[in-house]
Specification:
about 160 residues, two-stranded parallel sheet, rod-shaped, 2 strands
């Protein structure tokens, strides 16, 4: 299915996923400040694009999408319910009346489940972004406390 068929929020997520795949394929990844060829610790310069860094942007974006989905699911359920108002009375005596009611109930239950799950998911996604940011700060702080020689030792010298 072409991405044009998706809502703007979903297209943004699909675009982000494509960018992630492209950046992952562009080169090896190394830990920031861990030394080596890609990290900032090895050359003393700025961190390269291949350094592993955290950003809460994707988590916040995902939380926003979950909230948007929750809202649209609530709207869809309301429209579905209001559209079926009076259908039971109008189709009384027909065999399809009971089937229509069971289909309506089934969809209302499904939409309620999606709405509830999205409502539960949004704050959790935001919390993950916050927790990872705090964890990054703690790890960076703890790494500063480690004394490392400016030049790696040659294992042959030992």
């Amino acid at each position: 299915m072409a991405t044009e068929a998706y809502s703007e929020s979903w297209r943004e997520l699909i675009d982000l996923a494509g960018q992630e795949r492209q950046s992952a394929a562009s080169g090896p990844m190394s830990l920031a400040s861990a030394g080596g060829s890609g990290g900032s610790g090895g050359s003393g310069g700025a961190a390269s694009r291949s350094d592993l860094e955290h950003s809460d942007g994707p988590w916040t974006t995902a939380a926003g999408v979950a909230e948007a989905l929750r809202t649209s699911t609530t709207t869809a359920k309301s429209r579905l319910t209001s559209t079926h108002t009076g259908v039971t009375a109008a189709t009384e005596g027909l065999a399809s009346s009971g089937v229509l009611k069971s289909v309506l109930t089934s969809w209302e239950d499904r939409l309620s489940s999606v709405r509830d799950e999205c409502g539960s998911l949004a704050p959790k996604l935001r919390q993950v972004g916050k927790d990872l940011g705090e964890r990054d700060t703690k790890v960076k702080s703890s790494l500063r406390e480690i004394n490392t020689p400016s030049e790696p030792s040659d294992p042959k010298e030992k």
